[in-house]
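batch job 7 of whatever, protein = F-box domain-containing protein
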Amino acid sequence: MTVEAGQLYLGDSKKARYTTTIEKLPDKVLLNIFSYLSHREICRVARVCRKWRTMAYDTRLWRSVSLRPEISGLHVGSLESLLSLISTRFGPSLRYIELPIELITHTVLHELANKCPNLTHMLLDFSTAMQLHDFSEMQAFPTKLRYMCICLSEVIFMEGFMRKIYNFINGLEILHLIGTYEKVEEEEEEIYEVINVHKLKQATPNLRVINLYGINFVDDSHIEAFSSNCIQLECLAVNYCSKVTGSSMKTLFQRSRRLKCLLMNGTSLKSEYVMQVDWEKTNIQELDVAATDLSTECLIDMLTRIPGLRFLSAGQLNGFNDSVLKAFMEMGNPRNLIALDLDSSDNVTDDGLHKFLSRYGHQLWGLALSGMPHITDQLWQSVLPILNNAKIVVMGTQERLGVNIHVDQLMDGIANNCPNLERLELRWDPENLRFSDKSQKAIDILRVKCLKLRCLVLSDGRYYEIVKANFERADRNTVVRTTTNCRVSNYYLLNNYKDLIFN
């Protein structure tokens, strides 16, 4: 296929037509085009011709590589193929790599250490392991790692492998240990401590960010262990580590003076331990205590003593009610608050929320009031004029309501009041959404006025199809998504959000 470049009129009035093909593009332009392709697609276009094959081998296209095909990565059929890739394509340009269990061998790790001196980010996926390779002969490992993510197995003990890499990972700044939370069955089975956290912390004194996600054996002693050796610690996440009760929280804050972010969603926090913390002396700015069982007394005690909270996630808490919000306003310090998530906190009334948002809504960048049947479009319409700085908004519940949500007026209010909006989710059941023939106009206004909008999530149904078609006609195909495969969260506003991403 050719593309006309134009016509040139010569002195003798003869017309000469010049055409340009993709073959005539400069190499740097072609390389830039290839950079938008996945590695699977790059491998396919490499078969077109010799020039494209040479371009596909350019190491600049292979700076970040996933070899986990089940998570959109490249499938490598054998160790020999991977060793060849490391030599011919990865080289000094490689910065990030994800390896599945079958490709984690001492030979591969040796090659990465020798051929990829600038490798700084590595993910090792042991989650499906029933048996590890033999690492007794491993003598080398990448030494410039700043980020490491290890997906743990349910039953395989990692200490033999970890013992071999302890001397190489003292420069780590970000550590992810990912458990098997989603695989846990209801039946109680024996829990194995498959990795020795107490030894690991001795080898990683420079950690700034620690994420222990869904690990069934992690408890307060492991938090205390990290706090005893990681004086640079800024962010600690132990979401869905159900054995964590908070008994080491006071010690954690006494030792880790730089700790600004603590995420404890789905843990077993006990109110008495949380109330023992000297909150006045901490530097905490971001806190997630959602889906715990903290009492109203504890929440009031904590929120009135934290000096300058910036981010609060306190959803799914029976203890969070109007008295907590009132105490936070009158005796606490919400002046720095930019993100609030109260998902499924049914004991907060719309009147209590209205009073709080009337006072502090103008400073919020993120607000999630989802999962509460009594919070309808009426409250949102009344507070939208205040939320003029909002970047993230989550509203609605998937429960079938006895009232209807007039979504046209709601979209119009969002468009006219939230020009900085980047992410929006409406979780209401499609049966509760009421819209008219003029819906296209309301959607047009939202699309035109909220130019920063990159994600709009709706429950699958007729209204979703209308909105999706509208955005696709404007060549914004990736904006509209369904709640089936996408959820919006205030976590995008965390200071360490990019460091906390895994998988």
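notes: Confidence is low (pLDDT under 50) at residues 1-16.
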